[in-house]
Amino acid sequence: MLTDYIKQQSNPISFPINGQSWVVLSDVEKRIKEKIENIGKPLKEWDISIYRGILTGCNEAFIITKEKRDELIKKSPNSAEIIRPILRGRDIKRYGYDFAGLYLLFIPWHFPLHLDTSITGASKVAENVFKEEYPAVYNHLKIYKNILSARNTAETGIRYEWYALQRWGANYWNDFFKQKIIFQEMVLEPSFMFDCNGMFFCLDTARIITGQNIDYLISILNSKLFFFAVKYFYGGGGLGENGVRMKHTFFKYFSCPVLDNQNRYTLVTLSKTAIEKYNTCDFQEVDDNINNFIYKLYNISETEKKLINSII
């Protein structure tokens, strides 16, 4: 009878708490999810900050080639002070990056008087100082003045000057100069890189993570286990069969272990090796070693590992 079949085949379902996504899981998937959530603490409780990249409002004006960079610096040497190497989302890979030779003209609101908190609205004084102190960059941007002025008529020329970036990270721009993890949101595989020298800015198609323990958190974030969990447990699916939207609000409930000194040393060493071996024939072996180490940290069984590896 149907009722007997249902009793035999049914599984109890635990409803999520604390705003987590509601998902229907197989027995194996439920075990994996429980193992993740019973270890360490969720990422939202770690001492890290996650911020969006720079929004220019007009990439053709603010994103320049190396040739244009060199030209601006030749015309006005202090142009180098406001030109930063930048990564787009597509440039960011697992443990590494493919630098496209592009640079950002980093022009905050009210630049170069952007540290003067008394300035509100578009400042003609700031524009005049900018024109005088950075003539090469000013003249380059002036070519695009009509386009830049039309970016957002409710803000441009009202809240900020026509030559400034649309969003420049006013409350966190210094974090771009720190050691940080950079990742893109729309991905087909784990794509977190480590900027050890605080070198790169990134566009709005990417995000940055700064804070404590990011030297080993990057390996957990790049793991198959993490990718699997975000896609199937925490709402990151929906981008075709293989894609994931790696939005930080989706993965804030993923729990990471607080490592003892020995495990921390092992994972940090593996992370550094993966960064060094990125784009070499030895990379896959290192990546496999990291995934297997993380499986052990979470006590993932062979059956559970087989499921994850078959999908990711």
What do these coordinates show?
About 40% of the residues lie in helices and about 15% in strands. It has helices at about 1-10, 25-35, 60, 65-75, 125-135, 135-140, 145-150, 215-220, 225-230, 250, 260-275, 285-295, 300-310; strands spanning about 40, 50, 65, 85, 100-105, 180-185, 185, 190-195, 200, 205-210, 245, 255. It has 13 helices and 12 strands. Strands 2-10-6-8 form a 4-stranded antiparallel sheet, covered by helices on one side. A 4-stranded mixed sheet has the order 3-5-4-9. A two-stranded antiparallel ribbon has the order 1-12. The two termini are about 40 Å apart. The chain is elongated. Helix 5 (about 125-135) crosses helix 6 (about 135-140) and helix 11 (about 260-275) runs antiparallel to helix 12. It has about 300 residues and is an alpha+beta fold. The mean pLDDT is about 90. It has 2 domains: about 25-45 and about 210-310, no CATH class; about 50-210, no CATH class.
Unreliable runs, pLDDT <50, ≥5 residues?
none
Number of helices: 13
**Mean pLDDT metric:** 92
Characterize the overall form. Answer: elongated
Number of domains: 2
Which band does the percent of strand residues land in? 5-15%
| Order of H and E elements | HHEEHEHEEHHHEEEEEHHEHEHHH
The tally of strands reads: 12
**Radius of gyration, rounded?**
23 Å
Structural class: alpha+beta
Major sheet attributes: 4 strands, antiparallel
> Looking across the biggest beta sheet, what order are the strands in?
2-10-6-8
- In percent, how helical is the residue content? 25-40%
Distance between the termini: 39 Å
